[in-house]
Amino acid sequence: MKKKVILLIALVFSIGLLTACVKEEAPTIQMNEPAKRIISLYSAHTENLFALGLDEEIIGVGKSDAYPVNVTTKDVYDYRSDPEKVIAADPDLVLIRPFIKKSKPEFVEALENAGIKVVSLYPNTFEKFPEYVRTLATLTGKEEVAEEKLKQFDEELKALEEKTKNIEPKINVFFEATETEYRTITTDSMAARAIRLAGGNNIASDAKAMREGTTIASYGEERILEKADQIDVYVSQRGAMSSGGNLHSIMIRPGFDAVKAVEDKRVYTIDEKLVSSPTFRFTKGIKELTRMFYPEIMDDLTSFKTEDELTKSTFAKSIVMFTHKGIFAPTSKYYGKKHRGHIYGTFEDVPVDREDFDYIETAVLSGFISSDKTKFEPDKKVTREDLAKALYLLGDLKDNQNSSLIIKDIDECDNDRIVEMVVKNKLMLLEDGKFNPNRIVTQKEAIEAMERLKNI
Fold first, then answer.
1. Domain 5-141: CATH superfamily, name plus number
2. CB of 179 within 8 A of CB of 250?
3. Whole-number Å distance between alpha carbons of 374 and 342
4. Burial of 224 (0-12, 13-18, 19+ CB in 10 A)
């Protein structure tokens, strides 16, 4: 017999960070069985559905969906377009958020009139996230998977909080949600929660919501500059919906040279999907903020100083930590571009749930490590010439024309000019007059070479 799923779903969650919405009655939704043909018109829903293992059941996604890479294999739908395209796809469930129902009620009405189940969801607070995930799971028959994911999510949050809870004094942070009026976030927002869990002190804790139902707050230049000497770190949220300033625009704003974070060059950007979107990637956002606030803790390379042979995966992680490079997060525009090399998320041997996935993707897409287009070979050992190429890319090396250095085996090097530059700058030493390009390096050798690079 078909399993009958009866759900009491509160269709109205506050639109949270983006806009306010009108409260509605929560109807009873009846489905004969878990949804098997799903169109998701909100990126967070899409991302969470994939996390629950619903790749086959998802038949369509929204225009702005960009994660995980599997979204690129799905048909794209737009709630601003003719609803007939959605109706023709014959979904048994369409997931939206309250903003869509409010801004395009005729679109939703057309789907419902065609007999399609439309469910509107959005967790208006961080505390509502588990309930929201469980609702998605019940609609799709993934209850057990959801509980396991939520358990892991909770454990990751606690582990991150443990790293910073005893740090005193806390880093003072200003979080720019949008560049317009230098808006920030209220203390009950997901981004504010992320700042607290990352061990930061939100210096705009006095911010008031612009209107009921939103967690965006006007702040203004004057109030920021009043606290200029207290702001240790300035974080700007970047994304399609809520875009703060970029690094350059922030640093050249009149009067902002008085902001401590600007003076200390501690101005960072972060993708809104990592800190303001209700997905499991929220833990990655917290980790990124912690790296911004406490790089000496989060990007400490001491543990890499071992005699173990260096693998490409470990090398990627150490380089990203060494440079304090923020992890790469794709947008829908990214996939619309032409790519000559590797495309984010498509390495056959680096699954998205791999612990060092973000480090590998970031290192490759930043050009620090070369790779095949479809395979990274994470366990492959790093040679001295591989290290030399990375050091050359990481630093602005000068060619010492006065050096009379002779490298006996320079003909064995594929990148002889790069090797010469690295050796002349004393980042790597010769061994009995030879470079030995094919010798495997240890983790300690690589870190010590990067430290020498930092010194010059």
1. Nitrogenase molybdenum iron protein domain (3.40.50.1980)
2. no
3. 6
4. buried
Residues 264-278 have a mean pLDDT of 95
pTM: 0.90
Cβ-based neighbours of 68, under 8 Å, separated by 6 or more: 47, 50, 345, 352
Tens digit of each residue's pLDDT (9 = 90 or more) over 219-249: 999 999 999 999 999 999 998 765 788 888 9
Q: Which fold does the domain 147-293 belong to in CATH?
A: Rossmann fold (3.40.50)
Give CATH 3.40.50.1980 domain extents, the chain. Answer: 5-141, 147-293
Structure tokens at 159: 């582990």
Whole-angstrom CA distances from 451 to 92, 282, 300, 386, 426 are 57, 32, 12, 17, 11
Query: Alpha helix locations (H) across 165-281?
Result: 190-197, 221-226, 247-251, 260-263, 272-275
Tens digits of residue pLDDT in 375-421: 999 999 999 999 999 999 999 888 766 667 899 999 999 999 999 99
Sheet holding 58-62, edge to edge: 75-77, 58-62, 38-40, 93-96, 118-120
Tokens of 5: 């799923």
Cα angle 408, 414, 415 (rounded to 5 degrees) comes to 90
